[in-house]
Design goal:
The longest helix is centred in the middle third of the chain and has 22 residues, at 117-138. The protein has 277 residues and is α/β, with parallel strands linked by helices. It has 10 helices and 10 strands. The strands form 2 sheets. An 8-stranded parallel beta sheet has the order 1-2-3-6-7-8-9-10. It is globular. It has one domain: TIM Barrel (Alpha-Beta Barrel), CATH 3.20.20.140. 47% of the residues are buried. Helix 4 (117-138) links the parallel strand 6 and strand 7. It has helices at 17-26, 38-50, 86-93, 117-138, 153-166, 185-191, 200-203, 208-215, 245-256, 260-275, and strands at 2-6, 30-34, 54-58, 69-72, 75-78, 98-107, 142-147, 173-176, 194-197, 221-223. Bound molecules: zinc ion. Residues 5, 7, 34, 103, 226 line the site of zinc ion.
């Protein structure tokens, strides 16, 4: 199986990253560790160099454009503000195990109250396009993060769709942890984007993620854990890790009436095609 979005490069795994990676390796699970800023991008590349079937994505997440405190599933962390340095990131893409750019995108949810909202969104868009250029110049797909506000979840998705239509990444990419309108899914998959599913599908009581899955063509479905976050049922409360990706595959198989092996085959092929492996 292929966990297309993990963060074993994050501090949550600093004491036991090799055990975590080995637990995935013995289950034949490949992973892409995704960077959120320069330091975690570089760390993702280090892990990819050290371990087999471990790949890296490098990029600057929109929450790292401002300094703010973020609460994610009960844990608080402060983001450091970073300017996007194209050349520094471009250097990292020269490593053969870097298979994508990201995560990059729009995050309207975490914009701090003390900054000018419109200016913050403009800056996010600029850095997003800088990273589309990085993806094009390095011939890699883009991992897209998009999050709207509580009141208006879809606005960010509408805007990012418009940005992507204007400046379509050559190698396309992934809408990671897609949470936009069900009706918009087709617009993204028609552009050539993949949709990745994580633990939310195992505990979403609204049924929305299930609808998103049904809207997604088989050849565009990917698996991800987004670990250490979003632990799937039945392990809620534990720290998430790539080995748990099988619970997400199992749930997808159940919803689509497929065998687990079929979901594994489809999603492996999709990941290999997208990442050029
Ligand atoms: Zn992530």
């Amino acid at each position: 199986m292929f966990d297309t979005h993990a963060h074993v490069n994050f501090n949550a795994f600093k004491d036991d990253f090799s055990e975590v990676i080995k637990r995935a390796q013995v289950k034949n699970i490949s992973m892409v560790n995704v960077g959120s800023q320069y330091s975690t991008s570089r760390r993702a590349v280090e892990l990819a160099e050290q371990f087999e079937n471990v790949y890296a994505a490098i990029g600057l997440h929109p929450v790292h454009l401002e300094e703010t405190d973020i609460v994610e599933e009960g844990e608080t962390f402060s983001t450091r503000k970073e300017e996007f340095d194209f050349e520094k990131y471009f250097e990292l893409t020269k490593n053969k195990k870097v298979v994508a750019i990201g995560e990059a995108g729009l995050d309207f949810y975490h914009i701090p109250e003390n900054v000018d909202r419109e200016a913050a969104i403009e800056k996010q868009k600029k850095v997003f396009h800088d990273q589309i250029r990085l993806a094009n110049e390095s011939n890699l797909p883009l991992i897209v993060h998009c999050r709207g506000t509580k009141e208006n979840a879809d606005e960010a998705y509408k805007q990012i769709l418009a940005e992507l239509k204007n400046d379509l990444p050559k190698k396309r990419g992934i809408m990671h942890c897609y949470g936009g309108a069900v009706e918009l899914v087709k617009s993204f998959t028609d552009l050539g984007f993949y949709i990745s599913f994580n633990g939310i599908i195992t505990f979403d009581k609204t049924g929305k993620v299930e609808k998103i899955l049904r809207e997604t063509p088989d050849e565009k479905i990917l698996l991800e854990t987004d670990c250490p976050y979003l632990t799937p049922v039945p392990l809620r409360g534990k720290r998430n890790e790539p080995a748990f990706v099988k619970y997400i595959a199992r749930k997808i198989a159940e919803i689509k009436g497929l065998k687990l092996e079929e979901v594994e085959k489809i999603t492996d092929e999709n990941a290999q095609r997208l990442f050029g492996l």
